[in-house]
Amino acid sequence: MRVVKGAAVLGLACLASSAMVSPVWADDALTVYSYRQAFLVEPILEKFTEDTGIKVNLVFAKDGIAERMAREGRLSPADVVLTSDFSRLMELVDKQLVAPVNNEVINTNIPELYRSPQNDWYALTMRVRNVYSSKERTGKIDIDYEDLAKPEYKGKICTRSGKHPYNVALVASMIAHHGQAETKTWLEGVKANLARKPQGNDRDQVLAVKEGMCDVAIGNSYYYGNMMMDQKQKSWAEAVYINFPNQANRGSHINVSGMALAKFAPNKDNAIKLMAFLTSDVAQKAYAEVNMEYPVKADVKPSAMVASWGDFKADSLPIYKLAENHQAAVKLLDEVKFDL
């Protein structure tokens, strides 16, 4: 497998502005544009090459993939796009940069709840939007997302930007369940309860709980596992409990990483073979073990560490429903000036 390491440093936006000089690949090699980090996808793609003989070029970026594909148009070398969250998939769909796939293996492996009704994107892994609580000051809590707006949490909540895709998706799910007016009231309540302005990433929120800046924090489940495996951050994770919200009612909000077939994929047949492989037991288990995410394929178990957090009830809201409320969620976050 050939990897464009420079893209990880420069970002595709930079590459796109440099006269759009595309690398030269072998004609029969697949090109994968990926928002997912190299350490996670490289071993999986290497296994695909080992099994099929099909080489894969991996182009990694933190942002700008949709913009690059739009500029490249029909000349784009991209065959498959891997995204780190649902909003990235929607960006590709909205810009008409993906093509539908009708493949029995993929449709069998990925439940309808976690794929596009038009088959133009598929989830690959799941993560829960958890509420972390201080072991020292709060203990393990039975909490709903709705509770975060209650007066008892005044000055106790930390979170990253409301505009981050993870939080936008959570707000979109709240709109789906409660409508815009009630969700706006909820957002105003959560904002009023923040211990500080939204900032940093999910790990920073857990650190803030450890340091006593806040008692609860909103964060994705896989960060908890990744912190537990990082000797520098293990004490952060050990300072909090991981709580699954809304277990007595609709279940915890789920976001997903995913994949899509590029609209002008030069190697569509092999691209679909790769997509099918990514839904296989081997690839699903690798995702689960390396990045502490939940497999989408029902009969693949999570890693031992993830399983140790216990079973939980997931929100049964179809992922594609989040797209219907995405823009409304962004608008509400602006209206309540959540990040200011």
UniProtKB/TrEMBL annotation:
SUPFAM superfamilies the UniProt entry points to: Periplasmic binding protein-like II (SSF53850)
User: What domain of life does the UniProt record list for this protein's source?
Assistant: Bacteria
User: Which first-to-last residue range defines the signal peptide?
Assistant: 1-26
| Positions of Fe cation binding | Y222, Y223
Q: Mind listing the GO molecular function terms for this protein? A: metal ion binding
The residue ranges crossing the membrane are none
Tell me which UniProt keywords the record has, alphabetically.
Iron, Metal-binding, Signal
GO CC, one annotated term: outer membrane-bounded periplasmic space
**What does the similarity note say?**
Belongs to the bacterial solute-binding protein 1 family.
Protein known as:
Fe(3+) ABC transporter substrate-binding protein
Q: Which organism is it from?
A: Shewanella aestuarii
